[in-house]
Write a structure and sequence with these properties.
Layout lengths: L1 H11 L6 H8 L14 E3 L9 E6 L5 H17 L4 E7 L3 H10 L6 E3 L4 H6 L6 E6 L4 E5 L6 H11 L4
Parallel strand pairs: 2-3, 3-4
Antiparallel strand pairs: 1-4, 2-5, 5-6
């Protein structure tokens, strides 16, 4: 645990461009591993149950890079939801704080509260923002940061996920 904390302190000193690989190393959620079962409390709409691919974004109101990613994720939702991509924002913060934040920053995709922090804990999420793509079979197919997501990646993952059911 001390090694992880030292690595986290070291990672925070790196330039932003160098952090994605470090966050990938610090956080869990290995590609090929099943997304742990979770019980999220959704504020507003729930995710599309027929989605062929999920983008699960771990974020917090206090995290500047997380806040910067929200407009990009909104745009990806508009563009790719009709093709089977479901975006879910996941935070451990208190409902009142998140609802207040959402009044000033619009979310066009579902936001779930990891009330007891079980999903964060089971994936060892300690660095934010952090994003996972999860296939229909609940297997993690990509992990990284929102800034690394582009159309080419989403097109490839949607193709690999197969047709929308």
């Amino acid at each position: 645990m001390l090694l992880r904390r030292s690595a986290l302190a070291w990672a925070l000193c790196l330039p932003v461009a160098a952090r994605p690989g470090v966050l990938d190393w610090l956080n869990g959620g290995s590609v090929g591993r099943a997304l742990p079962t979770h019980d999220l409390k959704f504020l507003g709409a729930a995710p599309d149950p027929l989605a062929t691919l999920q983008l699960v974004d771990f974020w917090a109101t206090w995290c500047a890079p997380c806040r910067e990613a929200i407009p990009k994720l909104n745009a990806l939702h508009r563009q790719y939801a009709p093709r089977g991509l479901s975006i879910i924002g996941v935070t451990q913060e208190k409902q009142e704080l998140v609802e207040r934040f959402m009044k000033t920053v619009p979310f066009h995709y579902p936001v779930g509260l990891d009330v007891e922090g079980k999903l964060h804990e089971s994936l060892r999420i300690i660095g934010l923002p952090y994003t996972l793509f999860v296939g229909k079979d609940h297997t993690i197919v990509w992990r990284g940061v929102p800034s690394a997501i582009n159309d080419e990646l989403i097109e490839r993952l949607l193709k690999d996920a197969g047709p929308r059911t």
